[in-house]
Amino acid sequence: EVTLVYGAGTVEPPEGVETVRVESSLEMFREVLERLKSDRYHLLLAAAAMADYSIENPSPVKIPTSEVKELNVKLKASPKLVDEVKKVSPETFLVAFKAEYGVSLEELKRRALEKLEACEADLVVANDVSKPGIGFGSPYTEVLIVDGKGEAIHISKALKSEVASKILDVVEERLRRG
């Protein structure tokens, strides 16, 4: 059984998957945590990072440009969903994702380990989105899968669907090991 909590994506969810549509990062945050609190989930793949920042005081109404010619917006750090998962569902196997920009493979691994420890994830899938031809807007990606022992599996540039399959193979193997 799979539940997909899905934001503003344009890809049609697969058939047979319970899909919960949300419009904001805060809605996604609340929906996932409520589900983890109310039901047992063996695995959480936190594949999409929610917005790093959100507007501190959003306007409840449209602001007319004819009246307001300049607008200053104050941003605040958004809460991190992965930081809350183990607090509400310690038995759930957590796979967190970490996107970085312009880092070496060694630095990517170091940052993935920091993320893993900070949110008590079981695995972190990290990638450098600055590399040409991979990441956002491309059908290709390249990732590093890091576990709590500091072991890392490098998956070279491949189609995202192939990388996703390899990630799931690693997850399945880890879940079997216990």
Main traits of this protein?
178 residues, alpha/beta, five-stranded mixed sheet, two-stranded parallel ribbon, globular
Overview of this protein structure:
- The protein is of the alpha/beta class and 178 residues long.
- Helix content is 30%, strand content 27%.
- The protein has four helices and nine strands, in the order ββαβββαβαβββα.
- A five-stranded mixed sheet has the order 3-6-7-8-9, sandwiched between helices. The protein has a two-stranded parallel sheet with strand order 1-2.
- The radius of gyration is 18 Å and the shape is globular.
- The model has no long low-confidence stretch (mean pLDDT 93).
Strands, total number: 9
Estimated helix fraction: 25-40%
SSE string:
EEHEEEHEHEEEH
Q: Overall pLDDT, averaged?
A: 93
The largest sheet, given as strand count, sense and whether it forms a barrel, is: 5 strands, mixed
Structural class: alpha/beta
**Tell me, what's the shape?**
globular
Strand content: 25-35%
- Termini gap: 20 Å
- Describe the strand arrangement of the main beta sheet, using strand numbers: 3-6-7-8-9
- Rg calc: 18 Å
Low-confidence stretches: none
**Count of alpha and pi helical runs:** 4
